[in-house]
């Protein structure tokens, strides 16, 4: 069975926790382990924070879009912005790389996403925004049978 959720919200830092909780509540129906749920919440937090801080450069007029598809025990998560985009995706994915050192950003967002998810795809074009697609197969056998 396929189940899908879409949500959008203003690019405000205070909405990051809303995004985490909303995605976690939706994914919970697959009965993930606590570790899996924590990992999913963490990657949502990282991707949404990147969209707000880097994509929109803190401009609250921007909108962050989240789409989640649950199918056969797989969480397929897309987080998208229509912000400034990235010049060099490979450079942005390097551990410790940040364009905002003055904000004390660790530059570990993509590294965390890669470690917690089975697949990560990043599409970005200068001036049109960024799409981050993340996939995770949940370990729970029951979830795969629904």
Give a description of the structure.
- This protein is of the alpha+beta class and 146 residues long.
- It has a single domain (2-145), classed as Histidine kinase-like ATPase, C-terminal domain (Heat Shock Protein 90, 2-Layer Sandwich).
- It has 5 helices and 5 strands, in the order E-H-H-E-E-H-H-E-E-H.
- A 5-stranded antiparallel beta sheet has the order 1-2-3-5-4, covered by helices on one side.
- Strand 2 (63-71) and strand 3 (74-81) form a beta hairpin.
- Helix 1 (16-27) runs antiparallel to helix 2 (34-55) and helix 2 (34-55) runs antiparallel to helix 4 (109-116).
- The longest helix has 22 residues, at 34-55.
- It catalyses: L-seryl-[protein] + ATP = O-phospho-L-seryl-[protein] + ADP + H(+); L-threonyl-[protein] + ATP = O-phospho-L-threonyl-[protein] + ADP + H(+).
- Its EC number is 2.7.11.1.
- Residues 35-140 form the Histidine kinase/HSP90-like ATPase domain.
- GO terms for molecular function: ATP binding; protein serine kinase activity; protein serine/threonine kinase activity; sigma factor antagonist activity.
Keywords:
ATP-binding; 35% helix; 146 residues; five-stranded antiparallel sheet; globular; alpha+beta; Heat Shock Protein 90
Secondary structure blueprint with pairings:
Elements (H helix, E strand, L loop, with lengths): L1 E9 L5 H12 L6 H22 L7 E9 L2 E8 L7 H4 L16 H8 L2 E7 L3 E9 L3 H5 L1
Antiparallel strand pairs: 1-2, 2-3, 3-5, 4-5
Helix pairs in contact: 1-2, 2-4
User: pLDDT under 50 segments (min length 5)?
Assistant: 142-146
Strand content: 25-35%
By CATH reckoning, the class would read Alpha Beta
Class computed from helices, strands and strand pairing: alpha+beta
Largest sheet: 5 strands, antiparallel
- Tell me the Rg in angstroms: 15 Å
> What is the CATH topology?
Heat Shock Protein 90
CATH architecture: 2-Layer Sandwich
> What form results from the Cα inertia axes?
globular
Q: Can you tell me the number of structural domains?
A: 1
InterPro entries: Anti-sigma-factor_SerPK, Anti-sigma_F, HATPase_C_sf, HATPase_dom
GO biological process, one term: negative regulation of sporulation resulting in formation of a cellular spore
Domain Histidine kinase/HSP90-like ATPase: 35-140
GO molecular function, one term: protein serine/threonine kinase activity
